Amino acid sequence: MDDLDRKILTELQQDGRLTVTELAARVSLSVSPCHRRLRDLERSGAIRSYRAIVDRGAVGLNFEALVFATLRWAEPDTVTAFEEAVGAVPHVIQAERLFGEPDYLLRVVTADLAAFQQLYDQRLATLPGVQRLTSTLVMKHVVTDRPLPER
């Protein structure tokens, strides 16, 4: 990956709806080479997908919590079962496995506190291998959906 590829990635992170013609103009390249580079970035996996970033409040998901999960055992079967179960909970919009304790950080969105409590009691607390869950509420987003730095 060279500097031109990085410029292409930077532009697409700012606006994923750019046409190849617009992208080529922004990175000072003609359309055909820009299109080839774009396809190469997609094939290599540097560009995983294209999607819209939806405002949570606009779709009624105004409540967000960070849930920290500690597992009873960190055996491979327990970890796999937990991760598969977390992946099946649509309100978990991000899940990270951590070193040390807690074992996982889950970012959860719901309509309100009551919906979060129901999700917590019925789904999160029953995830395989869970020893302890602790949660904290998100007061304000300071940095969100930031494009990756060039390096």
Key traits:
alpha+beta, Arc Repressor Mutant, subunit A, Alpha-Beta Plaits
Describe the structure concisely.
The protein is of the alpha+beta class.
Tell me what you see in this structure.
The protein has 151 residues and is of the alpha+beta class. It has 5 helices and 4 strands, in the order H-H-H-E-H-E-E-H-E. The protein folds into 2 domains: 3-44, Winged helix-like DNA-binding domain superfamily/Winged helix DNA-binding domain (Arc Repressor Mutant, subunit A), CATH 1.10.10; 57-137, Lrp/AsnC effector binding domain/regulation of amino acid metabolism (RAM) domain (Alpha-Beta Plaits), CATH 3.30.70.920. The protein has helices at residues 3-14, 20-26, 31-44, 76-87, 113-122; strands spanning 63-71, 92-97, 104-110, 130-137. It has a 4-stranded antiparallel beta sheet with strand order 2-3-1-4. A hairpin with a 6-residue loop joins strand 2 (92-97) and strand 3 (104-110). The radius of gyration is 20 Å and the shape is elongated. The mean pLDDT is 95.
Q: For this structure, what is the CATH homologous superfamily of the largest domain?
A: Lrp/AsnC effector binding domain/regulation of amino acid metabolism (RAM) domain
Range of strand content: 15-25%
As laid out across the biggest beta sheet, the strand order is: 2-3-1-4
Poorly predicted tracts of residues: none
Please give the oligomerization state of what you see: single chain
The overall strand count is 4
| Mean pLDDT across all amino acids | 95
Helix count, DSSP H or I runs of 4 or more residues: 5
Per the principal axes of the C-alpha atoms, what is the gross shape?
elongated
> Main beta sheet: strand number and arrangement?
4 strands, antiparallel
- Provide the CATH architecture of the largest domain: 2-Layer Sandwich
What is the third-level CATH name, the topology of the largest domain? Alpha-Beta Plaits
Count of discrete domains: 2
Order of helices and strands: HHHEHEEHE
